[in-house]
Design brief:
Length: 312
Amino acid sequence: MTRLTHVKHGPYAPPVAVRELTAVSADGARLHVESHGPDDAPAVVLVHGWTCSTAFWAAQIRDLAVDHRVIAYDQRGHGRSPASVRYGTDALADDLEAVLAATLAPGERAVLVGHSMGGMTLMAASARAGVREHAAAVLLCSTGSSRLVSEALVVPGRPGRVRTWLTARVLGSRAPLGPVTPVARRILKYATMGPGASPVMVEACARIVHACPARVRHAWSRVLDTLDLDHGVRALTVPAAVLVGTADRMTPPVHARTLAAALPDCVGVTELTGVGHMSPVEAPEAVTARIRALVTAYGPRTERDELEEADA
């Protein structure tokens, strides 16, 4: 049974969707999907990461939905999408294709934004017909394509087999996270956020992450442990921007630089000083601004755009 827990007030309280629907993936998995903003506006699709949910994008949705159609969905087993017996990169790609087919008209293009495992979803699906039909540009946010465990800085110490082994045990723990306590907040902040993250930011992330069922968290950790999507990066031929925080312990900046070097059409790398892994929460204005810039540069022209230009 999935759970949804988030803050109820403030900038990280999720806005109410204009509409909700269920997308059905190739294996029958049911995915909770939300649409925000005007139907005739340029589309943005937000894909969250491991242990998160649509609530993770609250700040981006609130800002972008003023003049964009914002689509967000819960990855299988997260938020309001039921758990599945199938986990893996093919499932991530199937799910994204199902959401795009359920929300976008044939040939309609959108800017796709993936954070962490959401970015990996875009890489896993990069060669899929549905993604090539609908992707105008992508933002790979705080993510990597391979060597996730060996490059992670969650466990202090010298790189090598011992640190990699300990990191895999920490990230792959089967233990429930339990209630959001002061100790839990400190642990989450250390592992996933920059030192300057405010208590409001930490609280928002803690409530979302702690709501992810332990068995779902563990199942996806096993996928991430052996992840190799380097081929998917090379197949991501649309304009792609990369964003990372300099204090990211989960997917440190080395991943962003590797992605930038491998992408066929990299249109910029943004490094946010002092920001950790939860960049859309820690630096909402910067992330939203990068999304808006991609829509402006590569997004489709809408009937509204043409009318505004005619009036001018």
